[in-house]
Amino acid sequence: MDLAWYFYPLFFLAGLLAGLINTLAGNGSVFTLSLLLFTGMPAGLANGTNRVGAFVQCLVSVFTFRKTDKFKPLLKDSLWLMIPTIIGTIVGANSALQVSDQMLTKVIGYLMIFMLGVVLLKPKRWLIETASRKHNKSFLNFIIFFGIGWYAGFIQMGMGLLFLSALVLVSKYSLIDANFIKILISFALLFPSLIIYVSNDQVNWQPATALAFG
After folding, report:
1. What pTM was computed for the model?
2. Residue 118 phi/psi, 5° resolution?
3. Distance, CA of 199 to chain centre
4. Is the separation of the CB atoms in 168 and 209 below 8 Å?
5. Residue 131 CB neighbour total at 10 angstroms
6. Cα 71 to Cα 67: distance, rounded to the nearest angstrom
7. How many of the other CB atoms lie within 10 Å of CB of 118?
8. How far apart are CA 25 and CA 94, in angstroms?
9. What's the rounded mean pLDDT across residues 201-214?
10. Distance (Å, rounded) from C-alpha 145 to C-alpha 83?
11. What is the Cα–Cα distance from 61 to 183, expressed in whole angstroms?
12. Residue 92: what pLDDT?
């Protein structure tokens, strides 16, 4: 679909804002996905298009994160969590392709409201230090991260907050360490889901490129 020229500077700015928010916490897709829907783009196409910028954000974040001392130990911690997440995201992306644009629009609207309250729920719970652990290979983590992976494949918007919630409140990482792990896992899951959306012609590359540059 052809869009008016003035949307592209807005896509760039939305991508910039989403990149800042997603790197520090999550839910930057509230801005990018909302803008894509505002242009009149069908929800399914907007859902796929939005993932290009998110993937580029994670790619840049991972390369920047590699310069820190925490990269290798937190990468090792995140590898087990990537397995159920990637499985879940493949299932979720294929599920989203079976949903009508009308239903997907309603789901996105309700989720935007829900995500506003996630961080506000007992904020002191987030202020912890990383607990000592030998591994993260628990059945509970497998189920939780499969579920988040499914959600990320289905919608993606707000997945960063869900990852942070699980990593801080369940796995007992500090917020900073959890954010690093969130970025690593997000990078790993966005690639297969993006491939699924691209192969099903659910990406509009012009606005996707503007979002990615932002």
Report:
1. 0.84
2. -65, -50
3. 20
4. no
5. 9
6. 7
7. 14
8. 27
9. 93
10. 9
11. 7
12. 92
